[in-house]
Structure formats: structure tokens, C-alpha cells
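Session log. Operator J.P. requested a structure for one protein chain; no other inputs attached. Running the standard single-chain path with C-alpha cell output.
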Amino acid sequence: MRVLITGGSGFVGQRLCQRLTEAGHRVQVVSRDPESARGRLPDTVDIRRSALDFVDAPPDVLVNLAGEPIAAKRWSHDQKEKLIDSRLNATRELVGLCEQLQQTDTRVPRVMVSGSAMGYYGDQGDREVTEKTPPHDEFAHRLCRRWEEAALEAEAFGVRVALLRTGLVLDQGGGSLAKMLPPFRLGLGGRFGSGRQYMPWIHREDLVRAILFLIERDELEGAFNGSAPHPVTNAEFTRALAGQLKRPAIFPVPAIVLQTAFGEMARLLLTGADMRPARLLEAGFEFRFETLEEALADILA
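Structure written below.
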């Protein structure tokens, strides 16, 4: 099959491209910087600047992973607009491709797996969160809601849409661990604030497998929580990571320090959701890394 990916040169996208290529599929990637992307992707990947450039090579599947990193900068008004626009523009391009293909009587993609995030739920305290849990209204929720609404517009063209609300993605070479490991290796790690906030997480391999699972299962649509079955609190995450590295974790970061440094963005570090992958489990998806200890042992081996 032919798979078109936005965000294909990112942390998750690179591994997805690798797995699809190894399985013999034809991979297409949208990148604003094709030359840079070529250095990170298999040689056979077809890289173009816009999803609309693939009208002459219509994909069977769309995977939407594009978006400005949400925790890269303080949330100024302009940065919030960038976070929203980067997601909406990439998603609307994919929907526009579906519309153009339909107008020319060309086969439209059969499915779009579109990224979202645990931020959809906002701060949920310590209650268990499934795909049915009402969200808490805050910026992260509104961002994810608009992103999902844009993706669902593809349904008007006969495209099945699956929304994947991911937790923290863990693996070597990037993602959440890239920033955590240096201080923890030096024994300078510690919890954020009280440490009671939940941190849903998922091994990158399981996230890529979940994307492929949603592509293959024609009956699966709507929202799915992309996180391991056993989320942990920030304090538990801190202890597990320090334990794997055989280092102490005795330097907590007070909430006021994070709030002063990051402003509203500090909510990503100080609040969370006990998010469970109820619908993936009900559909029969099997995680290779169910517990944080298993995941960290594999990643840090």
C-alpha cells in the first residue's frame, strides 16, 4: 500500500517510515525541508513539500503526525498560534487532498490515522480516564479538539478517521527522555512539584504498532488513547528512571519554579491524566511494553 505521512521525519515518524519500508510499503512524506528530511529517512521514501503535491500518486493511507512541538517554548500568544496553525494547516492539507482526489474521480485514501494528545483531556486529577471521559477546558484541550475536528472533516469524503491521543513517547534518541536523561544520569533528577500528577506514557515501538493496528482494522474509528495500560505519577516515573540508571533522584523542582520559568506551559509538567487505552485493549491490541519498568529496561539496555 501507499502511505502518506505528515511529520514523517519526526521522532515517531522516522520509526514508522522505517517499519513501513521494511514491510514493503511505498512511503510518502510531506516536509517543508525535503533535503533535511532525506538525511533522516530511508532512500526509497518519496518526499514532497505539500500533501497536495501527491495528487498524481494518490495514497491509500494517511498518517497525520505534523505539529510544532508543544513544549519547546513558553506559551506566548504568538507561540499558541503557531501550535494551533501548524496542526490545523497540515491536517487541512490532507483533507484538501481527499477533496481533490474525489473531484477528479480518483480513489480517496481509505483511512486517516491522525495524531492528537493526552492534552485533549486537560487536568483530570487522579481519576481514571478513558476515551469517554469529559475533558477539562483549558488551552491543551482546545488545541487538541480543533486538531481532531479538522481531521474528522475527511469523513465527508468517505475516509475512515482514527484519532490517536498519545501520552509521553519514550525511546532512545529523542522524545521526552532526551531532556530527562542528562540530569538523571548525573544524579540531579527529581519530581516536578508534588509528583502526584499522572504521566501517561508509551514506548515508541508500541505507538508505531498501534498506528499500524488502526490502519489495518477497518472497523476502528474515532478516538483512541495511545498510552500504555499502566500510567504512573510523576514521582513514580522519577523513581523508576533513577532506579534504572542506579542514581539518586533527590532534587525536586518546586511548582513555583516551573511556573515562573514556563508560565502557562508549566501545566504540562504539573498536571496530567490517569489515561488508559480502553478502546485499543477492547479491540485486541497487545502492548509489548505494559509497564514503565519493562519499557525503560529495553530503552536503557
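Operator note: The two ends are 34 Å apart (CA to CA).
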